Amino acid sequence: MDKKVSxxxxxxxxxxxxxxxxxxxxxxxxxxxKELSERMGVTASQIRQDLNCFGGFGQQGYGYNVEMLRTExxxxxxxNRGYTAVLVGAGHMGRTFATNTKFESRGFKLIGIFDxxxxxxxxxVSDFTVMDYADIKEFIDENHPKxxxxxxxxxxxxxxxxxxxxxxxxxFMNFSYTELAETEGIIxxxxxxxxxxxxxxxKISECENKEKLDKE
Length: 216
Hints:
Largest sheet: 6 strands, parallel
Structural class: alpha/beta
Number of strands: 10
Radius of gyration: 21 Å
Strand content: 15-25%
CATH superfamily of the largest domain: NAD(P)-binding Rossmann-like Domain
Shape: globular
Oligomer: single chain
Distance between the termini: 54 Å
């Protein structure tokens, strides 16, 4: 694939994958772009444009084979490559994330959880025993994880990230309420749950303002 795919298209691919997974589970064998658009709330034209970035996959008069399209999108997203990850920070957020996230169906396998607190080290989280962060370099050298999930306090995030980069980690999912910059060779996904709440607040406010104007 020679042309660069826009970020907005990439951001929609997980939604396609989720809807196609649901369709596979319900036994649906094929679907048209119009039917898929109605499920997803985007236009059929947008779906065709997005999928054409990767070759199209549909057949005129038939639509899309659901299982085949799901497999193709999984391949595009790299969900079948078995990337491994460690989680650093076994506080409330880290424990919740480790316990409730289906890592392997999202393209990653969690292989270790670390923390620096003596009260947390040695406790159980899901199927893991929390290990001492002081031992993480040896673990990384032996297991070569591709990604680190950071659920550490924001004041510790930069030092922990720099530490892990020096050990060979090249990708981060950062939940630490402060931005981790993406630099040459380092991939970052900053996750801000508070941003989602503020966007929701804005939408509610806009809706209320519209209702108020309609009543005047």
